[in-house]
Design goal:
Length: 371
């Protein structure tokens, strides 16, 4: 089965692996049964699968497999140095691993790790060891707790990392709450890139730091184009993050939400899955839909074929939506898993018996995909 299209679904009760069998998606394996798998990631450079587990008693654990799940090895999770302090003066400790991202083709063993309470870690040896990126932790903006703060959680957290495929020293991160930060020298220096974003929940909605991106992605074919689903709408940049343009559908549904997918080849195409608002975190009109734009956010349409349109209380978390070429998949808070084989035009329910879906990853060793 090596190299076949695979769907990894991390749920609050385990990691479920799906593969296509005779044209249909079938559950092939279950790993970490009963454990909350909050993160799944597959590194195509090394064919390594990663799973982050949030044990209630033992804290955050990190596992990897180099043989597509046949065997798993626990690696030491990132650890904050004892001298690292929060703004409160308390010592920083790992609360959650939010995201893992490969560090570039020229760094085959390099990994970036985004965590809560807002620390970025780097590994030079494929996860054998991690070190805290002190330059970001000590960024001047962080000294003001009104600029870095938790969004529905006690601490800020780094949930999105994107690496410029042209230059592995060029990296963006997204922090809830703080905003987007960029380095062009491999992490030695960081600058906020939030011009054009809106922080409607703050007295000054145009602050430099204090924004709440929910998810951020970069177009592989045109890396100067970035998209983000933000707490305050949908935003797009065409100049490498220097400026963000609000492409929210103010008269439609593409507004508040968490999940985002973009086309790896066409920088004008993107998909979001809306919720009503931060106060009403349910599907608009209790009808599940995927919003799609093919013109860079000038116009949006709701894709509903195959999705429930009555009394649906599902929403989709920020890491529970993914795409790989024509295939798209998302999992919901009520344990429903949907797949589309035609860029979202129609959807098929492949499971309604899962626990809450925390993370989705579509994996194909041979295919180009979004980071």
């Amino acid at each position: 089965m090596k190299g076949s299209r695979t769907l990894l679904a991390g749920t609050s009760k385990g990691l479920v692996v799906y593969r296509k069998v005779n044209g249909n998606w079938k559950a092939a394996d279950v790993f970490f049964r009963g454990m909350p798998v909050t993160l799944v990631y597959a590194d195509r450079r090394t064919n390594t699968w990663w799973a982050g587990i949030a044990h209630r008693h033992w804290g955050q654990k990190l596992h990897r497999s180099v043989d597509e799940g046949k065997n798993w090895t626990e690696v030491k999770a990132p650890k904050y140095p004892e001298t690292t302090k929060l703004s409160s003066g308390k010592s920083a400790t790992l609360k959650k691993i939010w995201t893992i991202e490969q560090a570039g083709l020229d760094r085959p063993n390099g990994l970036w790790i985004g965590t809560e309470p807002g620390g970025l870690f780097y590994s030079e040896d494929n996860g054998e060891s991690f070190f805290l990126v002190e330059s970001l932790w000590n960024h001047p903006s962080r000294s003001d707790e009104n600029q870095w703060f938790g969004a529905g959680r006690d601490h800020p957290f780094i949930h999105s990392i994107v690496v410029d495929p042209r230059d592995s020293d060029h990296v963006y991160i997204a922090v809830s709450c703080a905003g987007v930060f960029e380095t062009r020298d491999g992490g030695k220096n960081w600058n906020p890139q939030n011009k054009g974003l809106i922080a409607a929940y703050l007295p000054n909605p145009n602050v430099e730091v204090g924004h709440d991106p929910h998810r951020m992605l970069l177009c592989e074919a045109n890396p100067d184009v970035l998209w983000q689903q933000n707490h305050c709408g949908v935003f797009r940049s065409t100049d490498a993050g220097e400026n963000w343009v609000n492409v929210t559908d103010e008269k439609g549904l593409a507004n508040y939400g968490f999940a985002l997918a973009i086309d790896a080849e066409n920088p004008l195409r993107a998909w979001t899955i809306p919720a009503i608002s931060d106060l009403e975190r349910v599907a608009p009109d209790l009808a599940l839909c995927v919003c799609y734009t093919q013109d860079g956010g000038i116009s949006w349409q709701a894709l509903r074929k195959g999705l429930p349109q009555k009394n649906t209380f599902d929403i989709v978390f920020r890491h529970s939506f993914d795409n790989c070429q024509e295939t798209m998949a998302f999992g919901t808070t009520n344990g429903n898993l949907y797949v589309s084989e035609n860029y979202g035009e129609s959807w098929k329910l492949i499971s309604n018996n899962l626990a809450r879906v925390e993370s989705i990853f579509l994996y194909d060793l041979k295919s180009t995909r979004n980071q």
